[in-house]
Amino acid sequence: MSLHTAHALASQLADGTTTAVALANEYLERIARTEPTLHSFVTVMRAEALAAAEASDARRAAGKPLSRFDGVPIAIKDNMITRGTRTTCSSRILENFVPPYDGTVVGKLRAAGLVPIGKTNLDEFAMGSSTENSAFGRSKNPWNPDLVPGGSSGGSATCVAGGQAPWSLGSDTGGSIRQPASFCGLVGFKPTYGRVSRYGLVAFASSLDQIGPMTLDVEDTAELLSIISGHDPLDSTSANIAVPDYAAELREGSLAGKRIARPREFFTGEGMDPEVTAIVEATTEKLRSLGAEIVDVSMPHLQYSVSCYYLVATAEASSNLARFDGAQYGFRAADTKNIVEMFSRTRAQGFGPEVKRRIMIGTHALSAGFYDAFYVKALKVRTLIKQDYDKALAQADLILAPTSPFPAFAAGARSADPLAMYLCDIFTLSLNLAGYCGLNLPAGYTSAGLPVGIQLFAGAFEETKLLQAAWQLEQSIGVVGTRVPALASV
Amino acid sequence: MALSAKDVEHVALLSRLELGPEETRKFTDELTKIFTYVEQLDQLDVSGVPPTAHPLPMKDVFREDVVRTPLSNSEALSNAPEKEDGCFRVPQIV
Fold this sequence. Notes:
By secondary structure, chain A is α/β, with parallel strands linked by helices.
């Protein structure tokens, strides 16, 4: 078994060597075979996928495909609402919620003719770094099922790395696309805040959340980003900026003469797995050999990003998740005497421990007497972190960073200590606080054969520059397709 | 900062989360640990630093005020745990 990129499948569809129905059947069959091991999905959309694939083949036969990718399957993280298909956020509180409408991005996938094949597992409400917080069981890393796939977009990573879907969508609030991409050997992209509509993405932290692609190579990321980006009148925070054809411009860049900042606070080695450090150093050398100039910079407030993030994100979450009260949709606790008891018991029974913990942290940080000391203070530190980014990006085109201090870890290894889990995200959180774009690019393997990624960041709406640099680096590293996870060859 | 069980009970009430005694004890420990960690922010002098609540410089976003087709009553109620006469039904409020 080899893994197929979406652009390769698009070529096969164009030259008639496969059909959308054949592809849907192939992936559904692989899902049936490997899902007991991987557990990538909350819901497999078998009937819907086959119907959508038939419609796609009919369009193509009539010479009217909706896009080059018409008929290519895609998996969608289960926090993006899909009309007629339940959307759970991997939470008991939404276990049977069937949305009556599509989120904007889901609508864009359908408008391009893509075939949604399933809703992927996540840490409940995207809160976690290992996908162990799902109410429906953890997803397993295709490189070694004893290990976590990262999170919160764990299922979106395992399905692509495990050959159950050619590409997927995740969401990234503090690293939830990039960290699982690193743990599973994928390209994972967090767009600039506002690049992609959040309408129909179940809100976790509204000033941080962005939807983005998880793919086997940079080209697929560029293609999928063009499909999902754009202004949306239904999301007042979406930016009214033209969407380039990212893939068409992909090969036009060069790393020669590019200035790449290395924030020294990210390269102290403290808490880092030495093998990850070695891969990041080798990548730095690779960039140099491609003609890039590595610039040493200081971003002194990065060390505060975990504290800042876990106040801002939880404060926003505590307000966003107030809507889950059992009144209008979702789970409702039985036999309650009055409305407050119904709210409190519904939420107690419907939410898992990590979601409760974050609601509690955020509520405390926003409560009378603590608002200025915690929430407002965190917002001021957020300004300092953003200023660090602006200063670094004034001296350089891109920023280089590790993605995770370590490769995929064993299930259960960090779940007992919430703070230890939060510290996993030390290299990814600050990008969301600043609002800029970044990606994980597979950069090498540990001696145990586990993938390790690195991050590149760019400024607001500089996706083209970022993708061009990543593509150049990818050609040089040549990781894609060189190894396939153990569980993808089942 | 250390949170007491009483603090945690207050936050749980504000959060509309019914907690058992074991959960209260666990959250008291965990929240104390987390709020002690975030006190590292006190090392910074942030006087004169403006807060950033939102990453993009956006304000006053308008759209055309046009009538769109809303969800029908039955679609809006399609996930209701309990309904009656086209409305959401809930336990006694007052």
